[in-house]
Amino acid sequence: MILLKTTKLMKAFGGLIAINKIDIEVPRGEIRGIIGPNGSGKSTFFNLISGVYDPDLGSYIEFDGHDITNEPAHEIGALGLARTFQLLRLYQDMSVINNVMSGYHTRVSYSFTEAVLGRKKIWDKEKEIKDEMMELLSFVGLADFAEMNASELSGGQRRLLVLARAIASKPKLLMLDEPAAGLSPHNVDNLMKIIIQLKDKFGLTLIIIEHILKVVMDTCDAVTVFDHGQKIAEGTPAKVKDDNAVIEAYLGKKMNDDEMRKALAV
Amino acid sequence: MEKFKEIIRQYPFVGFIIAFLVLMAVPSIFFTDIYQSHLASLICINIIVAAGLNIVKGYCGQVTVGHVGLYAVGSYTAGCMFMYLGSDLWLTLPAAIIVTAFFGVIMGVPSLRLEGPYLALATLGGAEAIRLFIENGEFFGSTYGISNISQPVIFGMAFDTPDKYYYIAMPIMLIAVYFSFSVLKSSVGRAFMAIREDQISAAASGINVKKYKLLAFILSAMFAGAAGAVYAHFPPGYIHPNNYTVIEMITFLAMVVLGGLGHIWGGIIGAVVITIVYDITRPLYQYQLFIFGLTIVFTILFMPKGIGGFIDKYFIDKRFKKKKTEDKK
Question: DSSP letter string over B94-136?
C-alpha cells in the first residue's frame, strides 16, 4: 500500500532547479529517511509536499489516494499529513498546552455556531481535548511544563513540543525536518525511542530528514539520498551507506594516482 | 468556594448572570450624579469596541487601524435608519451588526496580502475614506451630523437619560463580552492565536489562514457595529463625523494595548481604565493625545502584555510557588 507517491516532481527557483524530476513511493507504516548534503533540496521537497510551495507544471503528488499537487497547505493538513519545520516555527507567545491543542484543530468536532453560544457541551469537549493533549505531552515528556510559555522552554524541549504539536492532529504521515538537530546524545537517543514508538504504537508512517546518520541508520526502514535536487540512491540504510554515488556526494570523488599527482604538483 | 469556582468553570453563563446582577445594582449604590452614569454607559460602549478589537488585533495579530471606520458604519447605519425609517434601537442594532459585518469583509481583504505597517496603512485609508464619505454625503447629514436619534422604550418606559440608558448599554455589553469570551476560549480562538504566531505553521496544522483572518475581521466588525448603534442612540442621540477620527482610533488602540494584547479580558480592563483616564484628563485636553501615545509606547516597552498579562503572571507565579512548597513537603 503506497501512502505517498510523487511523479516527476519539479521545482525551479529562477535558474536554480531545486528539485529535479524526483519519483518517490513511500509505503504505509515505513520510516523513510532522506539524507543529502546542504542545499540538495530536502527541505524544498517537504515544502512541495506539504503545500508551502506549489510544484512546477508536470509534477504529480498523490497522498492516500488524493491528488494533492496544487492543494493549499491547510487542505493537505486536513487530509492527515503533518510536518515539523527545520526552524521549528513554534507559537512562541502561547502556552505549551495551547501549542499542542492548536495542532488538534482539524479534529475539533463542534461547529463555529456552537462555539459562539458557549454551551456546556463545548466546555466538556474542550476538557476532553485538553486531557488527551496532556497525555500526549506526557508521552514526549513535557507534561510538567504545560502551563508555561513556549518561549521559556529549552532548545531540546522545543523540538519535542513541535513534534507533539504535529502528532496532535493524528496524522497518517508525519514528516520531520531535522528533528535531532542541536540535541545532545542523550536526547537523541530519547528522540529515537519516541520515533520508533510512533511507528509501532500509533501506526504512523514517517519521513525524516536528518543529518545525524545514527538516527537514520538505526530507525529508518529505507533511505533516499538527494544531491543537487536529484535522487541519487535509494534502499536500505546498509545498502545506501556503501553506495558509491552517496560517498561521492558527501566526500567527493576518489582520485586516481595521476590526478593526485597533478593536484599536488600545483 | 472551590465548588463555586467549579460551577463557573462548567457554566460560564452563571458568571455572567452574577456579573449582570452586580452591575444592575452598582448605579443605585455608588453613583451620586448623572454624570457618573453617563461615564459608565460610555465605558460599556467602549468595552464592546475594545473586546472586538482584541479579537482581530490581540488574538489574530492583524494590525488594523480601520476599526473606527467600522464603528462609524455601525453608528450611521443606526442613525440613517432612524432618520429615514424612524426605527428604534431594537431594529437598528441587528441591522448595524449585519451592515458592519459586510464592511468588515472589505476591511479584512487587504489582510490576505498585507502585513504589519502596510496593513495598518491600508485599513487607515479605509477608515478615513468612510469618514470623508460620510462627511461629504448629504444623505448622511454631512457635517451637521444626525441629531435627536430616539432612545429605546420598553413597556412604555423611555430610557432617555444617561442614567437610564446604562441599563440598555450594560446588558448589550455583557452579551457581547460573553460571545467574545466563548469564541476566544474555543478552537477558533486558538486558530486565531496560531495565525498571529506563525501563518505557515498554522496552515500546516490544517488551519485555513485566509478564512480565519476574514472571520476575525467580520467578528470584530460585528462588535464595532453593535457598539456604534448603541452609541448612536446614546442620549442626547447625536452623531457627527468628528467622533470617528484617527484620534478615537488611537484611544481604542490604547485600550487594547494597555489592557493586554491577546488577553481574554485585555480589551475590557483597558476600556475601563482608559475611559476613566480620558475623563480625568479632560481639563488637559491639549495633552490628551500625547498622554495616550506615551501610554502605548511605555506599555509596549515595559509591560508588553499589558495589565491583563501582568495579573496573569502574578497568579501563575503564585500557583508555581504553591506547587513548589507542596513538592517539598
Answer: HHHHHHHHHHHHHHHGGGGT--HHHHHHHHHHHHHHHHHHHHT
Tell me the average pLDDT across B86-101. Answer: 94
Considering just the CA atoms, what is the radius of gyration of chain B in Å?
A: 20
- CB-CB under 8 Å, A118 with B188: no
Residue A163 Cα distances to A176, A239, B77, B189, B257, angstroms? 8, 29, 49, 22, 33
Residue A266 has what pLDDT? 62
Rounded to the nearest 5°, which phi and psi values hold at A34? -125, 120
| Any A CB within 8 A of B4 CB | no
Model confidence at B50: pLDDT above 90: yes
Can you give the length of chain B in residues? 329
Mean pLDDT across B16-25: 89
Low-confidence ranges of chain A (pLDDT < 70): 266
CA dihedral (A149, A155, A157, A160) positive or negative:
positive
Spatial distance between the Cα atoms of A265 and A259, rounded to a whole number of angstroms = 10
CA proximity to A134, closest of A126, A122, A142: A142
The residues, ordered by sequence, that sit 6+ positions from A36 with a Cβ below 8 Å of its Cβ are A42, A225, A226, A227, A249
Pairwise CA distance, residues B259 & B59, whole Å: 13
Q: Treating both helix axes as pointing N-terminal to C-terminal, what angle do B89-108 and B67-85 enclose, rounded to 10 degrees?
A: 140
**A2-80+171-265, CATH topology level:** Rossmann fold (3.40.50)
* Cross-chain residue pair A105–B205, CB shorter than 8 Å: yes
Q: pLDDT at position B62, please?
A: 93
Domain boundaries, chain B: 1-30, 37-257
Say yes or no: B183 contacts chain A, CB-CB below 8 A: yes
What is the nearest CA distance from B160 to chain A, expressed in angstroms?
Answer: 31
On whether any CB of chain A is under 8 Å from the CB of B105, the answer is no
pLDDT at position B316 over 90 = no
- Average per-residue pLDDT in chain A? 91
Q: Do A101 and B190 touch (CB under 8 A)?
A: yes
User: Any CB–CB contact under 8 A between B181 and chain A?
Assistant: yes
- Per-residue confidence (pLDDT) for residue B311, from 0 to 100: 87
pLDDT digits (tens, 9 = 90+) for A179-204: 998 899 999 999 999 999 999 988 89
B207–A102 CB contact, under 8 Å = yes
Intervals of CATH 3.40.50.300 along chain A: 2-80+171-265
Residue of chain A with shortest Cα separation from B193: A94
Cell numbers representing residue B66 in the block: 480601520
By the CB < 8 Å criterion, does B202 face chain A? yes
CA distance B199 to chain A (A): 9
Q: What is the mean pLDDT of residues B232-244?
A: 92
